[in-house]
Amino acid sequence: MPRIPVRALAGTAALALAIGGAAFFANGAIGAGATTDGPLANDFNEVTRSTAWNQVDKLHLNFQTYHTEGLAITDKHIFLSAVQIIEPTQKYPSPVNGYDRTPGKGVGHLFVMDREGNLQKDITLGEGDMYHPGGIDYDGENVWVPVAEYRPDSSSIIYKVNASNLKLSEQFRVNDHIGGIVKDDTTGDLVGNNWGSRKFYDWTPTGQETRSWLNPSHFIDYQDCQYVDTAKAICGGVANLGQTPSAGGNNATYELGGLALVDLHSHEVLHEFPFQKWTAAGHVMTRNPVKMAADGKHLTLWAAPDNGDETNGTELFMFTADVP
Q: If residue 148 lies in a helix (H) or strand (E), which one and from where to where?
């Protein structure tokens, strides 16, 4: 099934209307096998640090969302991945069996909402120590979800969920923590990134690794990505940076948020910029789930950075910007 072009409602002041009424698909793609960059990649390249982003609305999610991770929006649903922590991980004084911390305990969730944000289904994900869903993406037919142990250098299960009938299928397993995934329309392969997005992997749909490469950028750690034509991905994320001694030092970290455009074939970071908008809980907007859309020279960004138990619970924010 070819991807459907992204169209965001320019100028709307209602998030529920924008999500509920727009023919919005989170990938920003022209179609399978496309060779020309779509409007999202082109407009993304025009964003600078001085681009004005305006919050036009937000939607409060009226259910327990735990710690949000990834976002995908289809013509019928909003998908939100999240991890429910039952027992936090604990750092070891020194590595044990190659791990730097205990596995902890938790439950992985993929929340399925209607386009107005009402919860329709809670799909439980994971197995054993693998309970941490990461960034997710929609390919026009399926939502792809990695679920990993909550520690680096561990293991993951790659799932797909049919966006129409919500059937969950395990696709393959990976001997690393995979924190995000997209599907490359030009090859049909899946591309994932590991803990801190320091390394990328390319797999066939059945899980055969075809290549891997190191992330050339250390600007931010990618938390949630989306595929955009052609053979690129937009990734949002955060870097937790230590403060000055007078401001608390490393115990009072500063969240540097940002987004990057990554070429999935050349492995270059083509464009990146900071995104410094904040929530009432003090989190930067790109901390976790982020998706974008383009309509002409108008960009729309959706983000859900706050946990369910924080100041205002989880809110789905909507920002817009005009580019040259």
A: strand 142-149
d(CA 78, CA 163): 10
Q: What is the DSSP letter of 246?
A: G
Sign of the CA dihedral running 300, 290, 121, 28: positive
Residues in contact with 152: Cβ distance below 8 Å, sequence separation at least 6, in sequence order: 100, 177, 194, 195, 196
pTM: 0.91
pLDDT of 135 higher than 80: yes
pLDDT band at 35 (very low <50, low <70, confident <90, very high): low
- From the list 226, 229, 202, the residue with the least C-alpha distance to 213 is 202
Alpha carbons 101 and 87: distance in angstroms, whole number? 12
The answer to whether 279 and 306 have CB atoms below 8 angstroms apart is yes
Dist CA 117 CA 318 (whole Å)? 13
Q: Which two tokens stand for residue 75?
A: 């013509």
Q: Give dist(CA 163, CA 8) in Å, integer.
A: 20
The domains located in the chain, with CATH, are 15-322 (2.115.10)
3-state helix, strand, coil in the chain (%, to 5): 10, 50, 45
φ/ψ bin of 157: left (φ > 0), alpha (ψ from -120 to 50), beta (otherwise): beta
Burial of 265 (0-12, 13-18, 19+ CB in 10 A): middle
Query: Buried (b) or exposed (e) across 55-78, using 16+ Cβ within 10 A?
Result: ebbbbebeebbbbbbbbbbbeebb
Q: What is the pLDDT of residue 37?
A: 85
pLDDT at 34: 54
In 3D, which of 63, 79, 123, 132 has the Cα closest to residue 104? Answer: 132
Contacts of 179 (CB under 8 A, 6+ apart): 134, 135, 146, 148, 192, 193, 194, 195, 196, 197, 222, 223
Classify residue 60 as left (phi > 0), alpha (psi -120 to 50) or beta.
beta
